[in-house]
Predict the 3D structure of the following.
Amino acid sequence: MQIPNVLEVKGIRVLTTKQIAELYGADLNTVRHNFRYNKDKYILGKHYIEVYGEELRRLKTSGEFIPSLKYAKSAYLWTEKGALLHAKSLNTDKAWQVYDYLVDFYFRAKEKEPELPPKKEIVPTQTKTEPLKKKITIPCMEEPVFVFKNLLALAEEQGISLKVKDTSGCTSILKGNRIAVRKHQLFEKVVYETAYELAHYFIHYNQGDLINNPLAKDYNDQAERAAFMMIRMLDIKAKQKY
């Protein structure tokens, strides 16, 4: 799963019906039927926005263009609250898990944090001047959303904040108790980078500057192995639930 490209209407982040179906792992006709059957529960302007005419033409010619709207004469676009009602209608584990993820990393992700001041204890995995980490194979995950939710819970328990944002020149950064993961990556890559930075946080919390440390390669290898172990254990736990 990949974070959707941002689509905004009237300053509100929204999703198309097709995106809702794909993200929630549901049939498109089922999502449409659920809306028609429960239409009295959906409020225009709160749960969805209807676009047509000039507004729709603007979307079709803007950088926010969504292919599924190409031939549409009008369209319903779903807000965060609308995405919640669709999750309620489907009522599947995947729909609920994906909804939680969208709230944190799509609908509410536009608030930019102030730039973090440099500190001596900064422990980034990469900087602009640092060579990129060696290409790694992302561990196979059958339940990546479950794995990610548990990694988030672990981070929250330790007072670590996690944001998906622009991270020029690197795929993830750890600064003190803050982790930033580059946006527009495959969801499984976001999960891996989160586990990788958490591993650095727990294993190398007192090692100072890892970039210029003569043992930097060994530290990165340790974090990679720990990330793989965390992901595999959580994925196995997810499968045992079912």
